[in-house]
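Design a sequence for this backbone.
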């Protein structure tokens, strides 16, 4: 089964943060397995799910 690929804007919406924050997470390798396509990064759904699980994010974007 293939993961859905999310844009940085979609990930920012899920985490309720800005695009610069998502770009920083990519740059500092907090999101692993990102794919550079054309002029943007795509982030697999499983990578986002793992990030949420490992960083104790509650609901949609609240980090405890």
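Sequence:
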């Amino acid at each position: 089964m293939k993961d859905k690929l999310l844009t940085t804007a979609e990930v920012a919406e899920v985490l309720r943060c800005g695009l610069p924050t998502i770009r920083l997470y990519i740059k500092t390798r907090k999101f692993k397995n990102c794919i550079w396509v054309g002029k943007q990064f795509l982030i697999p759904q499983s990578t986002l799910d793992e990030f949420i699980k490992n960083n104790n994010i509650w609901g949609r974007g609240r980090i405890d």
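The chain has a mean pLDDT of 85.
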